[in-house]
From TrEMBL:
The keyword Metal-binding does not apply. This is Branched-chain amino acid transport system ATP-binding protein. Keywords: Amino-acid transport, ATP-binding, Nucleotide-binding, Transport. Residues 5-236 form the ABC transporter domain. Pfam families: ABC_tran. It comes from Candidatus Kentrum sp. DK. GO terms for molecular function: ATP binding; ATP hydrolysis activity; branched-chain amino acid transmembrane transporter activity. The lineage of its organism: Bacteria, Pseudomonadati, Pseudomonadota, Gammaproteobacteria, Candidatus Kentrum. Belongs to the ABC transporter superfamily. The keyword Oxidoreductase does not apply. One of its GO terms (biological process) is L-amino acid transport.
Length: 236
């Protein structure tokens, strides 16, 4: 296995409050990693730190495919193949599906943008059927698909998902998790996911990283012991 993403002694927070304390873990190429833990454990802050939205404090570092990325701006991270899909405000509600996709590819040439938009619509026919609809008029599941499609415009190697199943019913949730699994199988795209529906996502996950009070509490392989002491202590 080859390491794609590595965090070493990452410490950061908000204002004077430290949220992450010397967090270290690895994600292998094309793996699906899931960050789990109780509310306030620091899961979303891990994604924000990777994406440069929370600068690192002290001596920590983040590497992607062997090169340091902490301190890089969002545009450079996208060019390196990393995209971030936040839980909220991940589409432009007053714009159509097509305009959302076009906006996502603003830095590309018109020809490349059109080609990649066509590929996204082929991959997600539901978006094609609703291409003229405003994002705000889509269902929650359709908006999540649109946010994913916007990320795929950049041909990423790693997608950071913050609660991709939030607000989705069981059918839509399975569809979203299936789409993430297909990205791994068909395009070798890795994912690092914050997700509270642990049992459901265990069907596609390769590894779990458990956070508690901003520190790595435990790591698990594909077979997460959902009822073991180590797993249960994460949520206390």
């Amino acid at each position: 296995m080859e390491t794609l993403l590595a965090l070493d002694n990452v410490t950061t927070g908000y204002g004077k409050k430290t949220v992450l304390h010397n967090v270290s873990f690895r994600l292998e190429k094309a793996d699906i990693g899931v960050l789990i833990g109780s509310n306030g454990a620091g899961k979303s802050t891990v994604l924000r730190a990777i994406y440069g939205l929370n600068p690192l404090w002290e001596k920590g570092e983040i590497t992607f495919d062997g090169a340091r990325i902490d301190g890089l701006g969002v545009e450079r991270l996208i060019k390196k193949g990393i995209v971030y899909i936040p839980q909220k405000n991940n589409t432009f509600h007053n714009m159509s599906v097509m305009d959302n996709l076009a906006t996502a590819g603003w830095s590309l040439s018109d020809a490349v943008s059109r080609k990649r938009i066509a590929a996204v619509l082929e991959q997600f026919p539901e978006l094609g059927k609703n291409r003229k609809k405003k994002a705000g008029d889509l269902s929650g599941g359709q908006r999540q698909l649109l946010a994913l499609g916007m990320g795929l415009i950049h041909r990423p190697r790693l997608i950071l998902f913050d609660e991709p199943s939030a607000g989705l019913d069981a059918k839509r949730m399975r569809g979203m998790f299936g789409a993430i699994a297909n990205l791994k199988q068909e395009s070798r795209i890795a994912s690092l996911i914050v997700e509270h529906r642990v049992q459901a996502i265990s069907e596609i996950a390769d590894r779990f990283i458990g956070l508690k009070l901003g520190k790595i509490h435990a790591t698990f392989g594909k077979e997460l012991p959902l009822h073991g002491e180590a797993a249960e202590n994460l949520f206390i």
